[in-house]
Amino acid sequence: MNEEDAYAKYEKNEAICKTYVENLADRCYSQSLPEDAPRSLQAACGELQRLLSLLDQ
Q1: Are 3 and 40 in contact (CB under 8 A)?
Q2: What is the mean pLDDT of residues 13-38?
Q3: For 12, 20, 35, 36, which has the most beta carbons within 10 A of its beta carbon?
Q4: Which of 9-18, 22-31, 36-45 has the lowest mean pLDDT?
C-alpha cells in the first residue's frame, strides 16, 4: 500500500473494510504501526489518538 496508487472504493459494501480499520486502530492504540507505514496512516493514528483523548475528558 502506498500513497500514490489509486485504490478501488467499496461502494455499497463499505463494511468489507471493517477488519482492516480495526487492525489499524489496534496498531495505533498499541503504538505498533510500522515505522515505514505511509504518512497518511501515521496521520490517521495521530488523529485517532487526538479524538480518543477528547472522549476521555
Answers
A1: yes
A2: 90
A3: 20
A4: 9-18
| Res 9: pLDDT | 80
Q: How far apart are CA 47 and CA 39, in angstroms?
A: 12
* Calpha distance 26→20 (Å, rounded): 10
Count of residues in the chain: 57
> Residue 37 has which C-alpha cell?
507505514
Residue 3 — φ and ψ, nearest 5°? Answer: -95, 0
pTM listed for this prediction: 0.68
